[in-house]
Design goal:
Elements (H helix, E strand, L loop, with lengths): L3 H5 L37 H4 L3 H7 L15 H4 L2 H60 L8 H13 L2 E4 L11 E6 L12 E7 L1 E4 L2 E4 L1 E6 L3
Parallel strand pairs: 2-6
Antiparallel strand pairs: 1-4, 3-6, 4-5
């Protein structure tokens, strides 16, 4: 019968259990550097001293990778739709402003003569008493060969240059737009008159262009 202990401790058979190898370079008991080639320790290989390739690659900074070139937009693509809409709106507004200015200029051309006539008519209205005195002096013969004759002529000539006209003569057909009938009398009318006719002028009328400053104040009569 064989002894179990002697068989277990036999050098021919390996002992059962885990095998522990001390690979520390410094001996914990003596503090000296161990010989890596000694039995029970294995030399440190390059694989053990070098970090893994993936860790080395991760530690190194990434190389500059050129960014992909982007195609530059063409001239048609560079113009955004929003910019096109704004430009169109501004152009439409400019055309409207030009049309409005043109209409205003044409209106001023039509209204300018009327404004001028109105301004001259205001001056004539202020001179009506003087003009009436000159007319009466002419009718009575007091102005002829007098010192004021030339002054009266110059005044009427100057007013005529600005479009002022005197109207109202005996024998004219009565026109309510140009005559103001102060009296309706029985009198002979010029031969050939068919309607109400002016037979006497008390105050002549004045107009500037088409604007009547004052109608002629007259006496009228009907044909018999």
């Amino acid at each position: 019968m064989t002894d179990g202990r002697s068989s277990a401790g036999s050098p021919e058979e390996p002992a059962e259990g885990p095998i522990i190898r001390d690979k520390r370079r410094i001996d914990p008991q003596t503090g000296e550097v161990r010989d890596q080639t000694a039995e029970g320790s294995s030399p440190v290989t390059d694989d053990e001293t070098q970090p893994p390739e993936d860790e080395t690659a991760a530690a190194q900074p990434a190389a500059d990778v050129p960014e992909p070139e982007t195609a530059s937009p063409t001239s048609e693509e560079a113009v955004a739709p929003a910019d096109t809409d704004v430009a169109g709106a501004l152009q439409d507004e400019l055309l409207r402003e030009r049309a409005a200015f043109h209409n205003y200029r044409e209106l001023m051309k039509r209204e300018r003569p009327k404004d001028r006539e109105q301004a001259i008519g205001t001056v004539v209205e202020s001179l009506l008493p003087v003009l009436d005195d000159i007319y009466l002096a002419e009718q009575h013969g007091d102005l002829k060969d007098s010192p004021f004759e030339k002054i009266a002529v110059k005044l009427e000539t100057t007013l005529g240059k600005h479009g002022v006209q005197r109207f109202g003569e005996v024998g004219e057909a009565f026109d309510p737009q140009h005559h103001e009938a102060l009296m309706h009398i029985e009198a002979e009318v010029p031969e050939g008159s068919e309607g109400t006719t002016v037979v006497q002028v008390m105050q002549p009328g004045y107009r500037v262009g088409e604007r009547v400053v004052r109608p002629a104040r007259v006496a009228v009569a009907d044909p018999q």
